[in-house]
Automatic annotation (TrEMBL):
PANTHER family assigned: ARSENICAL PUMP-DRIVING ATPASE ARSENITE-TRANSLOCATING ATPASE (PTHR10803), ATPASE GET3 (PTHR10803:SF3)
This protein's name: arsenite-transporting ATPase
Family: Belongs to the arsA ATPase family.
Organism: Halomonas piscis
Disordered: annotated segments: 184-205
EC number(s) given by UniProt: 7.3.2.7
Domain of life (superkingdom): Bacteria
The ArsA/GET3 Anion-transporting ATPase-like domain, residue ranges: 8-330
Length: 335
C-alpha cells in the first residue's frame, strides 16, 4: 500500500465517527516525511481536521510542517462564490425586467437541497484540476459515506441540468446553437454528460451566445477532467476507514459496492481502533471476544481488499505528537 501515497489523489472515507480524519491527517504526515509536497483537505461540513492537528485551519492552505499544508473548505463561502458565478452566467439569459426575480430565486436557492454539495463539488474539481497543481499528493478527508457518494454523482446531474436548461430554452435560436456546440458531435447528448464538448465551429454564434457557450464548456471540461482523474486508479484511490462494529461494516460493504459500480477505484479498507492484545481486564476481554467476530466478518465480506488494522490508542488523536504515533502505526501496517 506504500504506492497509494505515490498517487496524486487519495480519498479517505467512511461512516461518521470511525476516525477517518485522524487517518487522513496521519497519512498526509507520512507522505510529507517521504518528501512529497502534500495537501490534506477536509470536505466534511462538520470539520474536525483543525481539531486533529490542534491548529486553526481555514479555506486557504496553511503550512503545518515542512512539506505538509492543510485546509478546510468552508461550505458557506463556497455557496456564496458558487451562486455569484451562477448569477453572473444567468444574467446573460435574463432580460432586465426579470433581474429582480432572478436574484430573488438565487437568494432562495442558498438553502435549497444540493446547493452546498454543488458548491463543494466545484471547489473539489478545481483543486483536482487547477488549484492543487503545486502539490504532489492531495489527501481528501471526505464527509460521511452517503454525502461523499452524492458528491461524486453530482457531475452527471449538473451536466444533465445544464443541457436541460438549454433544451427548454430552445425556442431561442441562439440558445439552440449554444446547445449544439456543447455536445460532442453537434448533437444533443444529455445521456453522455462527460463527453468532451465541441471545440470548433462557433462562427455561427453571435458574441453573446459564444460567450455563454464558452462559459458552459469550461464548466463541463472542469468536471470532465476531475471525473477522469478520480476514475484513473493510477492517479486516484479511495480508502475506507471502519471500526470492527456492525454498522460501520454494513455501511462500508455497501459503499465499496457503490463506488465499484460507479467505476471509482477502491484500494483498501483500514480497520481502526482494534483493541490491542496487551489490553487487560475482564471488560476488555469480553469486548475483544465480540470484536473478533466482527474482524472475521470484515475478512469475509471485504476479502478482495487489503485490510490493515490500527490499534485503539490510549488517548484522543489531537496534536502532532499523537499524529506522529498514528503515522508510525500506519507505516507498520504497510503504508
Amino acid at each position: 500500500m506504500k504506492q497509494l501515497l505515490e498517487r496524486r489523489l487519495l480519498w479517505i472515507g467512511g461512516k461518521g465517527g470511525v476516525g477517518k480524519t485522524s487517518v487522513a491527517a496521519a497519512l498526509a504526515l507520512v507522505a510529507a516525511r517521504r518528501g512529497r509536497r502534500t495537501l490534506v483537505v477536509s470536505t466534511d461540513p462538520a470539520h474536525s481536521l483543525g481539531d486533529v492537528f490542534d491548529r486553526e485551519l481555514g479555506d486557504a492552505p496553511r503550512r503545518l510542517v515542512p512539506g505538509l499544508d492543510a485546509m478546510e473548505i468552508d461550505p458557506d463561502a463556497e455557496v456564496e462564490a458558487h451562486l455569484k458565478r451562477v448569477t453572473g452566467q444567468m444574467r446573460r439569459f435574463t432580460v432586465p425586467r426579470m433581474m429582480d426575480e432572478m436574484e430573488r430565486q438565487m437568494r432562495l436557492s442558498r438553502q435549497s437541497p444540493g446547493t452546498q454539495e454543488a458548491a463543494l463539488l466545484e471547489r473539489i474539481a478545481r483543486l483536482v484540476v487547477d488549484e492543487g497543481a503545486d502539490y504532489d499528493l492531495i489527501v481528501f478527508d471526505t464527509a460521511p459515506t452517503g454525502h461523499t457518494l452524492r458528491l461524486l454523482s453530482l457531475p452527471e446531474a449538473m451536466a444533465a441540468w445544464t443541457d436541460g436548461l438549454l433544451s427548454h430554452s430552445r425556442k431561442s435560436e441562439e440558445l439552440g446553437k449554444v446547445l449544439k456546440h456543447l455536445t460532442p458531435k453537434g448533437g444533443q447528448d444529455v445521456a453522455s454528460p462527460f463527453a468532451d464538448p465541441a471545440s470548433e465551429g462557433e462562427s455561427d454564434l453571435d458574441d453573446r451566445a459564444r460567450s455563454i457557450a464558452e462559459t458552459l464548456k469550461d464548466r463541463r471540461r472542469l468536471f470532465l477532467q476531475a471525473r477522469r482523474a478520480v476514475e484513473d486508479k493510477g492517479v486516484s484511490n479511495f480508502v475506507f476507514v471502519l471500526t470492527p462494529e456492525r454498522l460501520p461494516i454494513l455501511e462500508t460493504v455497501r459503499s465499496v459496492e457503490a463506488l465499484k459500480e460507479a467505476g471509482i477505484p477502491v484500494a483498501a479498507t483500514l480497520v481502526n481502533r482494534v483493541i490491542p492484545a496487551s489490553a487487560d481486564g475482564e471488560f476488555l476481554r469480553r469486548r475483544r471476544a465480540q470484536e473478533a467476530q466482527y474482524l472475521a466478518r470484515i475478512d469475509r465480506e471485504l476479502e478482495g481488499y487489503p485490510r490493515p488494522r490500527l490499534p485503539l490508542l490510549e488517548t484522543d488523536v489531537q496534536g502532532l505528537e499523537v499524529l506522529e504515533a498514528l503515522a508510525g502505526h500506519l507505516e507498520a501496517a504497510g503504508f
